[in-house]
Design a protein that fits this description.
Number of strands: 14
Structural class: mainly beta
Strand content: 35-45%
Largest sheet: 8 strands, antiparallel
Strand order of the largest sheet: 9-8-7-14-13-12-11-10
Number of helices: 2
Distance between the termini: 46 Å
């Protein structure tokens, strides 16, 4: 048992030191998200949930191929939307550690694998598909046509939402107009 603890501790030290030495590319400036954000860069890091993910830590294999190991948020505030499973695609907002030996923390984790799919409410039915495409099955004056995660927010066409809650069969989106509830369609 002691041998396993020493091996885990050694892997953890190697993982942490490897993460600190990696250079991260400059974020790309995106436009078209809204008038206020034309000059703002997306700070979200995208990747896949790795096998080293545990109760209080997240291993993220980024789209650039880097492996990042970080803590997960404040224990009093749940930061994961949609659960965590190895191999799921994630969008992560990272809070840098203050001290040299302090871990970076995932302040928000959105499970994109859970988010994609068909969602319905009384007045709206839509499907979030790969590549940022939204297919809307209800005829409406301003149909949803595209989606993306931008700085931890869900942007649906011209509207921006916080993901209040995301589960296997429920989605709650919040903006200044209120909270909108959706259930997953099969």
């Amino acid at each position: 048992m002691k041998r396993l603890i020493y091996i885990f501790a050694a892997l953890l030290v190697i993982g942490i030191s490897g993460c600190k030495e990696q250079k991260k590319p400059a974020p790309e400036v995106l436009s078209g998200v809204g008038e206020d954000s034309l000059e703002m860069a997306d700070t979200t890091v995208y990747g896949v949930c790795g096998e080293g993910t545990a109760m209080h830590s997240l291993e993220l294999i980024t789209n650039n191929g880097d492996t990042l190991l970080m803590g997960m948020g404040d224990d009093s505030i749940p930061c994961v939307r949609g659960g965590l499973s190895v191999g799921d695609r994630l969008a992560v907002i990272i809070q840098k550690g203050g001290e040299e030996d302090e871990w970076d923390k995932a302040s928000l984790v959105i499970n994109l694998t859970t988010l994609m799919g068909k969602w319905t409410a009384l007045d709206k039915t839509f499907e979030l598909q790969e590549g940022g495409v939204v297919v809307s099955t209800v005829v409406e004056p301003h149909p949803l046509t595209e989606w993306k995660i931008f700085n931890g927010h869900l942007v649906l066409s011209a509207d921006t939402f916080d993901i209040y809650e995301l589960g296997a069969d429920s989605l709650y989106l919040e903006n200044k107009a209120g909270i909108f509830a959706y259930k997953r369609m099969k």
